[in-house]
Amino acid sequence: MRFLPRAVGARLLVACASLVAGSGIALGQTPVPAPGQPAAGQRILHFRPDDIHTRRGFDYFYNLDYDKAVREFELALELQPKDPFAVNHLLSGVIFKEMYRIGALDSELYAKDAFLSSKQFPMDPNVKARIRELTERSLALSEEKLKANSSDIDALYTRGVTRGLHAMYIGLIEKAWFSALRSAVGARHDHEKVLELNSNYSDAKMIVGIHNYVIGSLNLATKVAASIVGLSGSKKKGIEYLYDTVNGGGENTVDAAIALALFLRREQRYAEAIKLIDGLSAFYPHNFLFALELANLYNAAGHGPEAIAAYRGILSRAQSGVYGEPRLGMVYYGLAEALRGQRDYAGAAEAYDKALQNPRIDPDLRARATLGAGEMYDLINKRDDAVKRYEAVIAADGSGAHAEIARKRLKEPYQNR
């Protein structure tokens, strides 16, 4: 494993960053589409454990009300203290609550390889301790079941989920890439074993599908390096597996839809991705991230006017209190990018600046927005304002990739070539 390039593990973890290892909330039956076709929306039909607290917990979870979600998961665990499914639900709630707090759920952070060299996120030490305790607890419960029966399908599945969460956490948050990769590979092997024992266990296809797609997307040299440690992949198989999970009605239905939309976006299959995220947004109207991703997809698909309307719709709903704790800096940044694409440079500069006014904007997004504002001011011939933005980027982090671009802009005004 030590000879595997860091990029392999990192790209596996980028995919995991968009996932939630848990369940959703089901309120009625959803028609299952034909094989290979995206669902119009995604509702969870099967829960483990299937109790009121788990159902409430994931309703809160997918609507980004993490405080209430964590409390419901705690109540579910009190009823089932030895159920690794219940422990994993609480673990995912704790992890994603903290990731949202520190701004680590912005998908744009992982769009480029700059995140590989970025600094660790500032985690609350008490949260870190709780994550470690819950991870160890869940693994111990699964291992206990596997000692009694090495072919216990549910125990293999829950151990894989815990390993997947651990890989995501220590990779994306602590930047411990090799340790993260070991956990990620362990998660895949656990779920491949589940599928050997029961090919219809659709939830287990999610992690296997993610790994297949990501490794299938790597260049030839990196694929060869991955194959040395037994990792192989196929983009086609990965997407098929994720569709199977989306349509399976299990606890990973929503999670798989999020991953699938990410990969469909990479494949420029925008109509399918939009349909998936639009369905999620309809089921979870208080989920700010689903609404934001839908707007991002419109922009990526080249539907600039629709994207602008979607971003402004989020801002309007935020003012009405629809979202609990929306990160408006992310919305204004997306709006700025969409306006920039429509050549409304003055409007884009204003939106970038509004993103910077958000007190909870994370450092990377601040740097991107500041640099973008500078470039827009150059295009509308406000050089003094542009220079101030470039200097601010350099002052914030003089050794970063954004600062390097800012130095070039100081030497020569930006031109939209």
Structure, described:
The model is unreliable at 1-40 (pLDDT under 50). This protein has 417 residues and is mainly alpha-helical. The protein has helices spanning 6-17, 52-62, 66-79, 84-102, 125-148, 153-173, 177-197, 205-216, 220-228, 235-246, 253-266, 270-283, 288-300, 304-319, 328-341, 345-356, 363-379, 383-396, 401-411. The protein folds into 2 domains: 1-284, Serine Threonine Protein Phosphatase 5, Tetratricopeptide repeat (Alpha Horseshoe); 285-417, Serine Threonine Protein Phosphatase 5, Tetratricopeptide repeat. Helix 2 (52-62) packs antiparallel against helix 3 (66-79), helix 3 packs antiparallel against helix 4 (84-102) and helix 15 runs parallel beside helix 17.
What level of helicity do the residues show? Answer: 55-70%
The major β-sheet equals: none
Question: For the CA atoms, what is the radius of gyration?
Answer: 21 Å
The proportion of strand residues reads: under 5%
User: Per CATH, which architecture of the largest domain?
Assistant: Alpha Horseshoe
Q: What's the number of domains?
A: 2
> Looking at CATH, which topology of the largest domain would you report?
Serine Threonine Protein Phosphatase 5, Tetratricopeptide repeat
Q: Element order, helices and strands?
A: HHHHHHHHHHHHHHHHHHH
Please tally the helical runs, counting DSSP H or I stretches of 4 or more residues. 19
Classified by CATH, the class of the largest domain is Mainly Alpha
SS content category: mainly alpha
Low-confidence parts, pLDDT < 50 over ≥5 residues?
A: 1-40
